[in-house]
Structure formats: structure tokens, C-alpha cells
């Protein structure tokens, strides 16, 4: 009797259609737009990647997005219960709920990492801890990418006919000599000198994650990450505990704040030397990449990843609409905003990649490899 009574209760609805649109934008906009899309463009031919991406969006992403939100609005039921209309597929709804459960655990940890970096970035000390190798977690192999490569044990031993002979203590054990012309700018280094790590990577590996030397050293609890994880879960709870009407108001802040940050980062990135090189790499298509099947697979994967398809969340968001809501127009608007955000984030990221390339003295296609 209680179950039948609960099924007859009117479902809570959004205060306005704008609440639904902003909630879907807040749901869809995330790492897939700001991080993964620029990375795939970097790996798959720059602007040429937009061709398979747009095709995948038109034939896969947008239709499925419209289908899921329409399904929720029609049935006024969440992703777990919508398969009651066809009980044989009930397991699909359960599988989607399980996937959403694991993805929430994964993403909340990534959010705690971001909060950790944010805290370190806003400290009064201008030197962020991943800038240099002067910290207790750094190893002797630590060396900044922006410092010239030097060898610790190299020495000049002789000159023959204006040809300089260089040996290193390490290589001299094998009685090998290297002849270098006097006008060249070569340096002979041992393998130990060349096997270096950046302070950025060492901060991530040894300070943030606390990676141990092996399975025999399990390590301990990262209390700072646990603290940021608690904050992240608390914020999520405060955003949803009063229902969709409360969430529909909170999302105006959470969905618009990333755009403010992207605009600020773009302005800063465009003022850096080398930004034009990064943007040229981003906009200049390499059509030869389109012949690789991996590029097309990445495009389809990116559409499903950034739109959050198949998880039941879009069905749940659509279920809070009124029955006669114009879901088709709203879904197309959300799809346009989502993909436009990905392209805009590409300008932000590639402006900084161009700066990194200039600072490291490398071509753009090797700046982050």
C-alpha cells in the first residue's frame, strides 16, 4: 500500500526551464570539455579532430541526449525505474546506476586533487611547490624542464688537431671516447644524467599521491587529500539535500563559474609569449590523421564521455520537467553549449601549451610529451 501511495505522489519539478538547462550544462561541462577534448585535439591532428567530433555529435551524441531527456520527461521517472516499461531490460538500469556510482567515486577524488592544487596556488608564498626541486620529497633526479641540461661528471681530457675529446667518468669505465668538434654545442652525458624527472611530476607522484617504492611499502593515509575529499562530499550534499528546486538555484553558480575561470585563463594565456604558436597548432588541421581509425574512435568516445550518456542522469534530470515542456529545443541548446565549451577550452589550453613550448625550447607537438 505504501509503495502504491508513493507512486501516486506528484514528482517535484524545476522552478523554470532555465533551471533544467543550467542543471544539464552543469552536469555535462567538466573534465571531458576542459581537459580531455584539448588533449585529444593535441594527439589527433589539431583542428582536424573537429571533423569526426562533429559527425559523432550529430549522429550519436545529440540524438541520444534528446532521447534520454525526453524519456525522463515523458515518464517522470529516474534512470533506475524507467525500464519498468520493459522489465526484461531492468538490468540495464541497474548497470547504469552502478556505473554512475563508481564514476561519482572517481570524479570526487579528482575534485579533491584539484582542491589540493587550488589551495597550494593561493598561498601567500609566490613559489608554488611544484616549481623547483628544493623540497624534501624531491629526488636527486629532479630537474626543471626550463633549466639547461648539464652533466655532473663530464670533463675535458685532451685535444687533438683542434678536436676536443670528452669523456665522462661513467663512460670511461668502458674506455670509450667521444670526439666533438670545437664549434659544436654538444655535451656527452651518462645515462644517469639524462634520466631526470620534472618537479611537477615529482610533486604529483611523491607529495600529492604519496606513491611508495613498491608493494612491500604500503604507505599511509594522505590526510590532506582526505580532508579535501570530505570538503568535496560536504559541498555535494549541501547542493542537493533540499531537492531539485534548491539544486536548480545552486547550479547557476556552479555551472557559470567554470566559464568565468576559462575567460580569465584565456586572457592570461593570450598575453604569454608563444600563445600564437599553440593556437596555430590547434587551428591548423592535419588531415592525414583522419585516415587513422583511432581518431574516429576517440571522437565517439569523447562525445559519450563529455555528454554523460548512458548513465541515467539525463533521464533523472529530464524527469523533473513538466509534461508539455519543449524538451527538443532545450536539448539542442544544451548540446550546442556543451560542444562550444569544449572548443573554447581548446583555445585556453593551447595558448598555455604554446607558452610551454617556447619556455622549453621545443616544438608545440613535443611540449607536453
Notable traits:
single chain; 14 helices; 369 residues; metal-binding
Helices and strands, with pairings:
Elements: H1 2-8, H2 17-28, H3 31-43, H4 50-75, H5 90-121, E1 154-160, E2 163-168, H6 169-172, E3 178-180, H7 191-194, H8 199-208, H9 223-240, H10 244-270, H11 275-283, H12 293-307, H13 313-318, H14 327-360
Antiparallel strand pairs: 1-2, 2-3
Helix pairs in contact: 2-10, 2-14, 3-12, 3-14, 4-12, 4-14, 5-9, 10-14, 11-14
Brief rundown of the structure:
With 369 residues, the chain is mainly α. It is built from 14 helices and 3 strands. Helix 2 (17-28) packs parallel to helix 14 and helix 5 packs across helix 9.
**Elements, N to C (H/E):** HHHHHEEHEHHHHHHHH
Strand order of the largest sheet: 1-2-3
Which geometry do the CA atoms define?
A: globular
Total number of helices:
14
Distance between the termini: 62 Å
Beta percentage is under 5%
Approximate helicity band: 55-70%
Averaged pLDDT, please? 82
Number of strands: 3
Low-confidence stretches: 1-6, 154-184
Structural class of the secondary elements?
A: mainly alpha
Give me the Rg, rounded: 27 Å
Largest sheet: 3 strands, antiparallel
Amino acid at each position: 500500500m505504501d509503495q502504491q501511495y508513493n507512486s501516486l505522489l506528484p514528482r517535484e519539478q524545476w522552478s523554470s526551464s532555465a533551471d533544467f538547462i543550467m542543471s544539464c550544462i552543469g552536469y555535462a561541462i567538466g573534465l571531458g570539455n576542459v581537459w580531455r577534448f584539448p588533449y585529444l585535439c593535441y594527439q589527433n591532428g589539431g583542428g582536424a579532430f573537429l571533423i569526426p567530433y562533429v559527425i559523432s555529435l550529430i549522429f550519436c551524441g545529440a540524438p541520444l541526449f534528446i532521447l534520454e531527456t525526453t524519456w525522463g520527461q515523458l515518464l517522470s521517472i529516474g534512470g533506475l525505474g524507467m525500464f519498468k516499461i520493459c522489465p526484461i531490460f531492468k538490468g540495464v538500469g541497474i548497470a547504469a546506476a552502478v556505473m554512475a556510482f563508481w564514476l561519482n567515486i572517481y570524479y570526487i577524488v579528482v575534485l579533491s586533487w584539484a582542491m589540493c592544487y587550488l589551495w597550494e596556488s593561493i598561498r601567500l608564498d609566490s613559489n608554488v611547490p611544484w616549481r623547483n626541486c628544493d623540497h624534501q620529497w624531491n629526488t636527486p633526479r629532479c630537474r626543471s624542464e626550463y633549466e639547461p641540461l648539464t652533466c655532473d661528471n663530464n670533463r675535458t681530457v685532451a685535444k687533438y688537431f683542434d678536436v676536443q675529446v670528452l669523456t665522462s667518468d661513467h663512460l670511461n669505465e668502458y674506455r670509450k671516447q667521444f670526439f666533438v668538434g670545437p664549434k659544436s654545442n654538444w655535451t656527452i652525458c651518462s645515462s644517469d644524467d639524462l634520466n631526470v624527472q620534472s618537479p611537477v611530476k615529482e610533486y604529483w607522484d611523491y607529495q600529492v599521491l604519496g606513491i611508495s617504492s613498491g608493494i612491500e611499502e604500503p604507505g599511509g593515509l594522505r590526510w590532506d587529500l582526505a580532508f579535501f575529499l570530505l570538503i568535496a562530499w560536504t559541498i555535494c550534499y549541501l547542493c542537493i539535500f533540499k531537492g531539485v528546486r534548491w539544486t536548480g538555484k545552486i547550479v547557476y553558480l556552479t555551472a557559470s563559474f567554470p566559464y568565468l575561470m576559462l575567460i580569465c585563463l584565456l586572457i592570461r594565456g593570450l598575453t604569454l609569449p608563444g600563445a600564437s604558436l599553440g593556437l596555430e597548432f590547434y587551428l591548423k588541421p592535419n588531415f592525414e590523421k583522419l585516415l587513422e581509425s583511432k581518431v574516429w574512435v576517440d571522437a565517439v568516445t569523447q562525445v559519450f564521455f563529455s555528454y554523460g550518456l548512458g548513465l541515467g542522469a539525463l533521464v533523472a534530470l529530464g524527469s523533473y520537467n513538466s509534461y508539455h515542456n519543449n524538451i527538443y529545443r532545450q536539448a539542442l541548446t544544451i548540446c550546442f553549449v556543451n560542444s562550444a565549451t569544449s572548443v573554447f577550452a581548446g583555445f585556453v589550453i593551447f595558448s598555455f601549451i604554446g607558452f610551454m613550448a617556447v619556455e622549453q625550447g621545443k616544438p608545440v607537438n613535443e611540449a607536453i610529451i
